[in-house]
Amino acid sequence: MKLSFTERFRVRRQEPFAALKQAGLREGQKMADIGAGKGFFTVPAAVIVGASGLVYSVEPDQGRSRRIRDRVASEGLQNVRVLTTGAEQMAEIPSDSIDLAFSAFTLHHFHDMVAAMSEVKRILRKGGTFYVWDTVPGLLMSHGTKPEELDALTPGFSRFELLRSGRTVKARFTK
């Protein structure tokens, strides 16, 4: 995987292959990378799921979506669909089709949390997981997601696990 200058530093703290495997991603699965940015997690996800899997890269910014498309093409990946849309409008993803919805450092950027969570629940298959990894607001970061805010997002999920808290929060919602 080709990394940009800033990603070479980022990978030291957020190794994408390890993070995706910790989230539960496996070969043959269907995944949605929600708030994909420039594809830091999208490309490794496509490698992990392999030819029998599929990754939807969901990114509302047109420039970033274009960058993901270029990156996917340069890596020769055929199992990625780039959607230029926000978490609130993932109509191109079929209902009950996703094994893992993944949001890394983007949950606090969702414009309409209720609509976004409704869409996440819609696209997840029964037993599917929404894995959240986000910053916590504090002295270092003025924005982020507070662990207690995640409790309000649990309706419609059969299980909620707060996996880690501190400077970052990790949580798993199971449908």
Helix-strand makeup class: alpha/beta
Q: What gyration radius follows from the Cα positions, in whole Å?
A: 15 Å
Average residue pLDDT: 90
**End-to-end Cα distance:** 32 Å
How would you characterize this protein structure?
- The chain is of the alpha/beta class and 175 residues long.
- The protein has one domain: Rossmann fold, CATH 3.40.50.
- Helix content is 30%, strand content 26%.
- A seven-stranded mixed sheet has the order 3-2-1-4-5-7-6.
- Helix 3 links the parallel strand 1 and strand 2.
- The longest helix has 13 residues.
- The chain is globular, with a radius of gyration of 15 Å.
Q: What is this entry, summarized?
A:
The chain has one domain (5-174): Rossmann fold (3-Layer(aba) Sandwich), CATH 3.40.50.150. The chain contains 6 helices and 7 strands, in the order H-H-E-H-E-H-E-E-H-E-H-E-E. The protein has helices at residues 5-13, 16-23, 42-49, 62-74, 113-123, 147-150, and strands at 30-34, 54-58, 80-83, 98-104, 124-135, 159-164, 168-174.
Offer a few descriptive terms.
175 residues; alpha/beta; Rossmann fold; seven-stranded mixed beta sheet; 6 helices; 7 strands
Outline the fold blueprint.
Blueprint: H1 5-13, H2 16-23, E1 30-34, H3 42-49, E2 54-58, H4 62-74, E3 80-83, E4 98-104, H5 113-123, E5 124-135, H6 147-150, E6 159-164, E7 168-174
Parallel strand pairs: 1-2, 1-4, 2-3, 4-5
Antiparallel strand pairs: 5-7, 6-7
